[in-house]
């Protein structure tokens, strides 16, 4: 029971460089990312045995993804090869008052055609302590909806903890489409990443005044959920935000410190929070330690280019314990 | 009466990259810009039929300018070819306490030799609703002084609205040289971009306590001026400024919200304001809507590399209506 | 009857830089290309009025394509907006013994869903002297097969000359699939770009000893074909080839000089030949002049990055007339 | 007995870019390489289980090396951490008549302090079919001399085949220093990479007229040597060479075809030959097949930036079987 | 007595680009720096005759250093050639909450082997008004310790003013190692750059409440020290700091204004302060003018890439007198 | 009598990168060059004391030129500051069949306004053994014509050897304009760089069958000319040429070996030949040694980016003595 497995879609990300707009760009930076892959990569960099499962087309772009995952020490042996194309997205990196902009080109991706039967499910879940999934997968296709629920059932059966990040994406499905699907997963979930908007708009809970009340209601309805987590983001400008993390455990809501910081790369901030939290939960840390580590990790991620949080646990502890220094020599 | 025409000089801009100083630079980024060209390009991106008139030497650098203008949908058919050289300027991009620095190499440019007779003036002003000029042109040469007044007379005669941006440049001429020339244009102008310093130092108006008083005096002397506009810039650092826009219409001074923002490229901020204002005036918007759009457009420009505001009107409205978001997906 | 129209798919091309392999690349250079678009861009650079028709998704990547076409002076007003995605391909640029490698990601593209009814066909073919199509289009989808034949019929009806480049792509369909489709177009074609392999494998003609014999047989069967053209490429290495062009007109086969040259960008060499030939045919040049210009243009293209031949007709004539010089000053 | 192990030094290579000389360079491209590491990486890309052993300092530069090796699928678990610094070398990339130039900064490297006792030698050699070493290691330090002979003895004892590449480097030691050391290894070697100059200057064999005679003498003296291999390089210019490979097995000398090719990166050409040969030997291919594959692999390497041959076996077979094509689509 | 001489180690600095972490970097930017070299370069840019003395290996990397120094107008004729290697360091440039990180690879450098006897000491100190040294040199090797004290004695003897920057580096030696060495220099020093931590931890002075008290005690014990200087840095984030400079002269502590600023390159900020101070001291400016210039120079340095302050004295005076402007044109 | 002085115009050169055409370029590489500056820089790199004289505008672009010259060890103390602008030229770097293309923007440059009286002529020519001028200078302006002849007269008077490179540029003046001017210099010249075309078209000599005959006639008419030199270039392609050097001394014509080579940067090839020849003449080498060194130097220059030959004399001797090697390690 020693590894953490994540399953989802990884995409080629093509980003504009040097503050150019799309229409000014004649080069793109290539990175690879997707919520669950980002979590796996971040966990491996924290020193946790992690495995990532997906489906990729059989071409050299996928080779680059395998190399990226292996370089980070993520197990790739259960990745399925096949399908027609690699999901892709284009990112125009914003700054100041200009928001970043995403063009998805992920339809018809290999992952969206992944069937439960293609997976070596026993090999994947054996020795697995936590399985991490997200609400992006069921948004991709009917296949992926079916896949998600079947994996959850199997994981439950094998005694694996289920971590789930709601990650609602308005460009992939409507709230009305997402609500019944995501809500149906709640009885399976042990660790749940969901915020006020998820509680209100997707779980369709009553009107509460604050996060604490929402979390109380959720855990009353779904006593199986051991951890509820989310962050509150304040946007001062596209390149300066504040972030506070929250964890709800055994009826108590605990907040992290509030960080204000400049942003190099906004994408993957939520996944870094999830990875930070799973790191603490995996190691049975206290709720306060879990949320402090997860929030500092998420803040740190905003300074790293690419989707994933390329940082060691010591570097995160250093920020938590010593604050910010400019240079060590 | 459907197009807006701008006439002036466009230059090759060679900028330092990656925060290098001039003496550290062995590459330059090439852009093309000039106040009136920037206005034309911005208007075309807002969806307005716009035409740009200038004079360019017959060489491949000018080809690049034609391609740039055409890519943006700006009409170029009345551009005159000839003369000896393309005006050029070098920009050291500053940050923090280090100001940006400009080296002009625009003397003897083709545009500075443009004669009124070289222009297909009927073709240029036919179907033209607004003609936009600036105070940079008469600063360039005697030719250009004569050109400016002749075009204004012709435009007046043909019933075209005249927009004029004072744009005083201390590196091109002294206040004493500029004052009589620019003041002589005032009776022709319908839409005037001029601030407190222009009123004081160029129009030589009496000492007033605020912009409102200056604008009242100007419109009393020149009742032909239907719109008076300007911005107030506060410099927190080279890469963080605040900006507020002002419009004076029918005796009333109206201010935009005040924006504080980080800066990617400071050049062309004023031209983006002018283009934003002309967009509103062209569409007969209310003074409040005009100044709000113009100011948001100017702020947005500071996030775009190059001289011109490569942004659609929807993106500006999005900032006005929804404030700043970090990423949409 | 003054313009040349081309219709087909244009794709975003993402190329590796600095001799990197795909798995070494973390940036890609972005260009835009497709056989018919390349012909339109090249013709516009030769000074011919050209228009390009395609279908593009409604997103900022398509904006970049519009800007690229407009910068080159290609008319874009009949381009259809809609569909799901922009066709994309990845190019690993080879050299020496390492071949260039292409990964197509063009399935489900907007263009592949284009229906004849979506086209403003009257506007497109009015004043059109030559319509240029290629064998790539029918390889893309059933839609595109139907589209191709319907346009040919309409063009015939409206007295437009039809130019067709066989352009067989083994990654898109098999010879058995292509043969009946492409052969069915032959009765419509006035200008036909097809080589020995096309004659043998697609038209399924008998075994002849040389190109001349093949061309004789083709024109005997399809007397409507006024021009038959092709090139012979010799591959000394991935970055050094030789090229000879051939034209068959009124029973006579004429060859261009044989050029040996180094290669900067191999893609679009055939399209540059087609554009060069159409330039000569449009201007009623002699067969010898047509093939000499087309071949020199194709050779020149190999020195230009991107898919299209960004070169003026004077530069081509300079090579034909004066051979190679190193620098003019 | 399924893996191939290589042991030696890996260095950070800092190369000039864009044909700049050292004194023109203000950026360097970073790659990682060393003869034995290059062999391990190349073998892994051919699909062979390969492991690399070295000693690295405990800092983030070594992290990059681990990531590079793991990305390529090379086992790294027996790499020793410790010592003071990472060996480094600077490469000025030449072209035409300007030779490439190397500045070594490898003295005092962690690897040069590696002791036999620091190695998990049982873990390293277990299941190892071939151990590959080179003459660079004993040139680095007394430590490394001792290390080399001890490993050979242990490998012999454990029934592992020993492959050895003479790789004489005049910048590291003199012929007089190298000769007794390298000669003393000959009785241990099964697969020997050594050419005419090695035979003459290091083994101090008598004067023979050709390679065949030298190889006959070597195998007479050292009947343990099952394979003798080398290449003959002809230098037409710094960026155009010809290469022919030779293998001597059971008394017979067999040559590969002679390839003439352009060069992107000359470094690692010999290591690519060794890896190609070990691939064939590992798979019990015929001598002709071994040398043909090894030579084509070496030629291919010259087209790949960096020290190692990032190529699959299929790509090499494609060149052997089909010759050179320009692009496949 | 007209020149200022500095002596110390200069290193090749290899920095990450575009906010990449070390493990993401496959290029490095190359600069050259070291405390004393930075001071010499900055002084030369202020128009002061300056000379730099060091020891460099005889290879092309050193050629680049000579070229860098000569380009800046620094005299290099007394630099000693020899030794084994150039000291190197790697800089991961941080931002926001991510600190910059340095990997030193300077051990065994040529400079660390420099002996007093290798220096043309008479030529170096002749006509020298101020000799500037730092506490980095004695931390490098026993050689360098001996060298430092011998040079100080000789300078004293020849009537040269001695400037010394404590520059304690925890990565090079411990406080216990540094304390006796650095303290032993105090009787020789005329101009001393040392702050509260140096006073407390290295000079081991008693516990005082503020800088003024420390400086009083120092000058009581070492009346030879004519100037004591330091800065106070406040770290708001890795890329935003505040800085205040202090000077103590004839019993009085004077502070500069406090600047808050964004950071392009943090390295060399202290050296820029030292150079600014030496500029004022050399020119016999008032203490207030000295510290104002030094502090503004240090702040300016944070906007310049590389180790040294590439700025003229006029640009510093412009900030002192006029504050910050965005662009002059 | 120990230094060589060169006088002429130096320009900012802005070159396209990565094989882009002008219209594809949005960055330019910046170098500095001009025939006489190139000679001075090359000579300094050969270890000869060299000084360069010109006139530059007082702006930061000139600072970069001073830094470039000083970095190369060229004396700059007699450079005159003043005038309006820095001469500039744009270079589209060609390859294969695509010629490089130059756009001059040098009119009205500071140098073109240089008057003889502005020069510190005594300081310039004192201790000068050879003064090198070229035919570009008199082509620039009337000023420059007068300047050239006056300097020649003064040099003659002071016993300085005069070297002159005809360097006819058709873009600057016609043969008819150049002929009387350049011919009038011949009685002053000791070392003359002029080829067959110069003899025919500018000196208007009779029709001879070969270079030897022309050189005989020239030295008969102008017995003051001690050395006549030129090269013969064969253009296989834009990036592959052959070059042979010729020297005529005391009635004998001697040829260098013929080199065939690939080209990185064609500009400055002739200046490198001149510098190589002056190096030999300065050191009283034999005519054969002079022409061999000059030709190898010129060939080498074609592999170096920028205008000047950044190479030591040892590197040239290495090519002459050992031919081409690929890498030394």
Automatic annotation (TrEMBL), chains A, B, C, D, E, F:
Keywords: Kinase, Transferase
Ranges where the Carbohydrate kinase PfkB domain occurs: 1-309
Superkingdom of the organism of origin: Bacteria
InterPro entries: Carb_kinase_PfkB-like (IPR052700), PfkB_dom (IPR011611), Ribokinase-like (IPR029056)
GO molecular-function terms, A-Z: kinase activity
PANTHER family associated with the record: 2-DEHYDRO-3-DEOXYGLUCONOKINASE_2-DEHYDRO-3-DEOXYGALACTONOKINASE, SUGAR KINASE
Protein family: Belongs to the carbohydrate kinase PfkB family.
Name of this protein: Kinase, PfkB family
């Amino acid at each position: 029971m020693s590894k953490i497995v994540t399953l989802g879609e990884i995409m080629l990300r093509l980003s504009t460089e040097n503050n150019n707009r799309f229409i000014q760009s004649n080069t793109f930076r290539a990175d690879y990312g997707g919520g669950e892959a980002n979590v796996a990569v971040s966990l491996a960099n924290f020193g946790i045995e992690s495995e990532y499962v997906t489906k990729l087309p059989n071409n050299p772009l996928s080779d680059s993804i395998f190399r990226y995952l292996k370089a980070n020490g993520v197990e790739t042996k259960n990745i399925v090869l096949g399908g027609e194309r690699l999901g892709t997205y284009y990112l125009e990196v914003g700054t100041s008052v200009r928001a970043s902009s995403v063009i998805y080109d992920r339809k018809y991706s290999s992952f969206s055609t992944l069937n439960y039967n293609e997976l070596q499910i026993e090999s994947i879940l054996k020795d697995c302590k936590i399985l991490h999934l997200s609400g992006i997968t069921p948004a991709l296709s009917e296949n992926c909806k079916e896949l998600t629920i079947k994996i959850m059932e199997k994981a439950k059966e094998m005694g694996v903890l289920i971590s789930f990040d709601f990650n609602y994406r308005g460009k992939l499905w409507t709230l009305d489409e997402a609500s019944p699907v995501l809500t149906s997963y709640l009885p399976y979930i042990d660790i749940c990443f969901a915020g006020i908007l998820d509680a209100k708009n997707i779980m369709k809970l009553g009107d509460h005044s604050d996060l604490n009340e929402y979390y109380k209601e959720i855990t009353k309805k779904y006593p199986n959920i051991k951890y509820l987590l989310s962050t509150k983001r304040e946007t001062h400008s596209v390149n300066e935000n504040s972030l506070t993390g929250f964890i709800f455990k055994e009826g108590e809501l605990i907040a992290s410190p509030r960080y204000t910081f400049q942003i190099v790369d906004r994408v993957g901030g939520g996944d870094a929070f999830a990875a930070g939290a799973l790191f603490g939960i995996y190691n049975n840390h206290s709720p306060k330690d879990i949320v402090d580590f997860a929030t500092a990790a998420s803040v740190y991620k905003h300074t790293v280019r690419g989707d994933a949080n390329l940082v060691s646990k010591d570097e995160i502890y250093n920020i938590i314990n010593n604050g910010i220094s400019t240079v060590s020599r």
